[in-house]
Amino acid sequence: MLLSADAERPRRLEMSGAGVTGTRFTYAFGALVLWSRQVEDCRAALQSVDGGLIAIANPDTAPYGAAARSYLRQAGLWEPLRERLVIGENISQTLQFAASGNARLAFIARSQLQAPSLPPASCSWPLPDSLHDPVDQQAILLRRGAASEGAMAFIEFLRSDAGRAIILRHGYRLPEVVE
After folding, report:
1. Which of 41, 78, 113, 157 pairs as cysteine with 73 (C-beta 3.0–4.6 A)?
2. Model pTM?
């Protein structure tokens, strides 16, 4: 099976026949956080002329990067901040840029705040979901694993109360009803 931080890849797999039709579902919604270990006010630093470099995941390939770009565009900040952006290959590299001090701010996944190796934050601002494109995290059973009892059991677990509790505990929002 595939667990994806977006809905597009599972949809493509389903349409191509590589994913089993009817098994695709949203198991969680990711949340975006502006995070720093160098500044006291993340929101003010974002808009400050001397706010330093800002790390985001690649908005063309990473769902959290697309959400960050969506927020920056809605806020009218995308163009003014483009020269300050440092693009990570993925959300993990984006966090590393800020955790190491190479970027003053980073748009990260709320779930990353749970990492035991994360240095203490000087500021953290959870962006309201209404301010950026959603980060729908979907799962799909792949055709090559369609007969796998383990894959089917894992799908059932993701939909169970116990699985949903784990997802929630790790910083994700849950769909009201698992599709």
Report:
1. 78
2. 0.89
